[in-house]
Specification:
Layout lengths: L3 H14 L2 E6 L4 H4 L4 E3 L1 H10 L4 E5 L2 H10 L4 E4 L14 H10 L4 E5 L4 H4 L4 E3 L4 H7 L4 E5 L2 H10 L4 E4 L12 H10 L4 E4 L5 H4 L4 E2 L2 H10 L4 E5 L3 H9 L4 E4 L14 H9 L4 E2 L4 H17 L2
Parallel strand pairs: 1-2, 1-3, 3-4, 5-6, 5-7, 7-8, 9-10, 9-11, 11-12
Antiparallel strand pairs: 4-13
Helix pairs in contact: 1-13, 3-4, 4-14
The structure holds 1,3-dihydroxyacetonephosphate (13P) and iron/sulfur cluster.
Length: 306
């Protein structure tokens, strides 16, 4: 039997021996952060995936993230750490639905949140992530934008870009929409001096009450640099724990105890061990035409997001 520390040491030894790069989304648990080569938000992971020198990439996150790595590096072996880890939002809209909407709005540029399937990306014009969405939509020449699938993130973008005509569909993150204005009022009453930092996947009435809105990495950077001492965190609750480790002199409170993404939580350190050992995970395989078409959408994001 291994202790956590011994298992981590074994993973670190094996990943070097087998030339594996471990990428972890910020919502992964702290024991996984400690063995990762890079931890970040969706945008950071996409950029890092394109640069990783190793022949094998292990994605500790959800399926669309592993697929993005494969699309950017088709020559690499890409593993999803736990085959069950999907993003429910990415499954909300498919090619058939969006093809129909595109026929109704032919003069709109289709902007897809990166939390979409690779198949859906093949018929979209550009991808965005929470940290790049405003800048990318701003940089698009067309005034007419169809933003899918997250209407809450889309509303947040639209509020900042009144010059754009942004059409939204009814999709969103089931984890972030659990946080309500009631939660905001209760948390502010319990912690009157705390700043409220939220992810723009939250409901607009929650996002509008926040002192800072941004991606997971954005929230963490803000809290690290801020002179304030207390923060209410309106995103997946792992971020509360990570910040508490990093800033022991500050206090972090979850906006709601229910903000847990069960898909992000599926991956365990034992899964990571099995993957680097070569006996676990799912190797990502996508049809060549899907990879080629979806790549245009992701490449445009990386160009417009610079
Ligand atoms: P970011 O990593 O862009 O902050 O997005 C959060 C998220 O929900 C990823 O699935
Ligand atoms: Fe998907 Fe929301 Fe979980 Fe992110 S937090 S993976 S958007 S369900």
């Amino acid at each position: 039997m291994f202790t956590t520390r011994e298992l981590q040491d074994e993973i670190i030894r094996l990943k070097k021996e087998k030339d594996v790069c471990i990428l972890a989304h910020a919502y992964q648990s702290h024991d996984i952060w400690e063995v990762a080569d890079y931890v970040g938000d969706s945008y950071g992971l996409s950029k890092q995936a394109a640069m990783a020198p190793q022949k094998t990439v292990l994605m500790c996150g959800v399926r669309f993230m592993a697929e993005t790595v494969k699309i950017l590096s088709p020559e690499k072996k890409v593993l999803l750490s736990n085959a069950q880890a999907g993003c429910p939002m990415a499954e909300q809209m498919d090619v058939e639905l969006i093809s129909g909407v595109k026929e109704k709005y032919p003069d709109y540029t289709v902007v897809a949140y990166i939390n979409t399937t690779s198949e859906l990306k093949t018929i979209c014009d550009v991808c965005v992530t929470s940290s790049s969405a405003v800048q990318i939509v701003k940089n698009i020449e067309n005034k007419n934008i169809l933003f899918i699938p997250d209407c809450n993130l889309g509303r947040w973008v639209a509020d900042q870009l009144p010059e754009k005509n942004i059409k939204l569909l009814q999709g969103g993150c089931p984890t972030h929409v659990r946080m309500t204005v009631r939660d905001v009022e209760a948390a502010k009453t319990a912690h009157p001096d705390a700043l409220l930092l939220v992810h723009p996947e939250c409901l607009p009435e929650v996002t509008r009450r926040a002192d800072y809105k941004g991606s997971t990495t954005g929230i963490m950077d803000f809290a690290r640099k801020s002179d304030a001492k207390e923060f209410i965190i309106g995103t997946e609750n792992s971020i509360v724990q990570h910040l508490q480790y990093e800033c022991p002199d500050k206090k972090f409170y979850p906006l709601s105890k229910d903000c847990v993404c069960h898909n992000m939580k599926l991956t365990t350190l034992a899964d990571v061990y099995q993957c680097v050992l070569g006996t676990g995970g799912e190797e990502i395989s996508l049809a060549p035409d899907v990879m080629e078409k979806a790549r245009r959408c992701i490449d445009t994001m990386l160009t417009l997001g610079q």
